[in-house]
Amino acid sequence: MYSRTDKSVAVGMLAFACAVLAIAAWLKPAAIGYGTHMQLGFPPCNFLRLTHLPCPTCGMTTCFAWAIRFQFWKAFFANPFGILLFLGTVSLIPTAILLLWRRISFRRIQDHAWFNRAIYASTVLLFVSWIFKLAEFQFAGY
Fold first, then answer.
1. Does 81 have pLDDT greater than 70?
2. What is the reported pLDDT for 92?
3. Contact 83, 76 (CB under 8 A)
């Protein structure tokens, strides 16, 4: 059964994806591959400052800023997982429109077995991406 909550979720997904992509387009990607988030008023990453190692999401904002400009190679080196997250964010727009148009409950998508598998796979890919970033930092001598 389609409810007001389902409509709110779909509208929220659509607004979120559009806002994230608009912000990514507005930002200037940091040349070093991370730190773009500071243009939004956020402080430098404490994890990086304290450990001298990148956090799992290090370079994510920079990745989005490069990807929105179709500079996927630069985006990949900013954060490999960010490419998947960027594509997922882009795909939220037609998905939300489809949910609204066809009046499909988000619960229907959430209840599929592949939904949980996608969450688990994404978590694994995030950590594989982090290993890549750690190796990149070691190689580049940051």
1. yes
2. 96
3. yes
